[in-house]
């Protein structure tokens, strides 16, 4: 049985990777690693079909290192030993370890010394958040890179490559793909290139030729992708427009508009985009004005993901209605962005000596932690002392808003504390 189209079209060098240009584009981190042949182990995390395996195979192809692929859940320690022996015999081996979040301690303990020696360059792939689901011992020895859903233009590029490539793609077939069918294919899979190519190949292989032309229409592609087109435009931007309108409607407190856009996303079966966007909205747009609402959104998303659709639409609708009608505040996002701006500009300075770590021999001789005042030893568990470095000791990042009782109270306390500190 021939390999699927998505497998056959995997890039053989880094320049051919579609999407993820923040990692593999000219001058970007993975591209630089490949160019210098200074590879470090890494974890790629993001949704299915976004190019994690493609990046790994392209790195191997560009560097000419041996490439092996294992699954952390199903392959054994013995399989890892075989890879390690190969690395000892022939030099560096790039190991793509799928589902790395399911790596058990026995396999992890075996891998660690090989990662440290550099004989095995590990590329872990996962759809789970590595900061939560991957053991710190592995995490500390890898760089973590997030991959994003591909854009419609990315998927269109991959489709065109597949239709013209005679060696690995469908170039030997005389395929006519209608414009609206192509546009649908670029948006309906929500950035999952594997699903898009699987749908395209199924359509091409299951549609009889007419006068030697395989004519692929929108209904054929819809059937093969198994998602109905609820809206799309000639530029293929409809999916992202819906998500944008969804967030802006909630931010603008228009409950009915938000429910309409939620309905579009539910109809498309796009649970992933709904879940991610709702949690972003909760903390970006409602935030400190109503923290309990943020917690309830997380619970609603959890319930919806476990219920699945169509039942999952109910907790999602409840969450959307509450977010629309809640007080709004983006002060938390604005505060961290302001602090990160200072860090990016190099504004900071040495950490005050009394705040430095004092839990080691010799710390006192350096003056570290010596003059630290333990707040719990003072009345009201607070004492005046400097926390920010000298160059920015008066910096203010948080600008309280008064759009809800919770943040109003926080703002009053924040103002009192800054005044007590002498700001």
UniProtKB/TrEMBL annotation:
Record-annotated AAA+ ATPase domain positions: 38-150
Domain of life where this protein originates: Bacteria
Task: Supply the alphabetized keyword list.
Answer: ATP-binding, Nucleotide-binding
Which GO terms of type biological process are on file?
A: DNA synthesis involved in DNA repair; DNA-templated DNA replication
* GO MF entries: ATP binding; ATP hydrolysis activity; DNA binding; enzyme activator activity; single-stranded DNA helicase activity
Family under the similarity heading: Belongs to the AAA ATPase family. RarA/MGS1/WRNIP1 subfamily.
Protein name, per record = Replication-associated recombination protein A
């Amino acid at each position: 049985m021939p390999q699927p189209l998505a497998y056959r079209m995997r890039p053989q060098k880094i320049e051919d990777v579609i999407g993820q240009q923040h990692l593999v584009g000219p001058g970007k981190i993975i591209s630089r690693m490949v160019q210098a042949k200074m590879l470090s182990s890494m974890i790629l995390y993001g949704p299915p079909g976004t190019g994690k395996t493609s990046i790994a195979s392209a790195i191997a192809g560009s560097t000419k290192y041996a490439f092996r692929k294992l699954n952390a859940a199903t392959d054994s320690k013995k399989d890892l030993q075989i890879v390690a022996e190969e690395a000892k015999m022939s030099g560096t081996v790039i190991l793509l370890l799928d589902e790395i979040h399911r790596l058990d301690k026995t396999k992890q303990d075996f891998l660690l010394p090989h990662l440290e020696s550099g004989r095995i360059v590990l590329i872990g792939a996962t759809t789970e958040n590595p900061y939560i689901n991957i053991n710190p011992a592995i995490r500390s020895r890898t760089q973590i890179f997030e991959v994003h859903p591909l854009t419609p233009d990315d998927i269109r590029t991959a489709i065109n490559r597949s239709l013209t490539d005679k060696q690995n793609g469908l170039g030997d077939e005389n395929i006519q793909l209608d414009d609206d069918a192509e546009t649908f294919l670029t948006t309906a899979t929500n950035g999952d290139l594997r699903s898009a190519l699987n749908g395209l190949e199924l359509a091409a292989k299951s549609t009889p030729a007419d006068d030697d032309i395989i004519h692929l229409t929108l209904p054929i592609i819809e059937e093969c992708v198994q998602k109905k087109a609820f809206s799309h435009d000639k530029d293929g931007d409809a999916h992202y427009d819906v998500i944008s309108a969804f967030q802006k409607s909630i931010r603008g407190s228009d409950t009915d508009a938000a429910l309409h856009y939620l309905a579009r996303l539910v109809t498309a079966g796009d649970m992933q985009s709904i879940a991610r966007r709702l949690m972003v909205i909760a903390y970006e747009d409602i935030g400190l004005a109503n923290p309990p609402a943020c917690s309830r959104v997380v619970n609603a998303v959890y319930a919806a993901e476990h219920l699945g659709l169509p039942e999952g639409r109910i907790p999602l609708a409840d969450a959307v209605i509450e977010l629309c009608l809640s007080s709004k505040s983006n002060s938390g996002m604005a505060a961290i962005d302001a602090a990160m701006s200072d860090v990016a500009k190099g504004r900071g300075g040495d950490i005050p000596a009394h705040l430095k770590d004092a839990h080691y021999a010799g710390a006192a001789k350096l003056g570290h932690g010596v003059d630290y005042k333990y707040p719990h030893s003072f009345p009201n568990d607070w004492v005046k002392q400097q926390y920010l470095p000298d160059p920015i000791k008066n910096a203010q990042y948080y600008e309280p808003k008064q759009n809800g009782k919770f943040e109003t109270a926080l703002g009053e306390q924040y103002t009192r504390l800054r005044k007590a500190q002498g700001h």
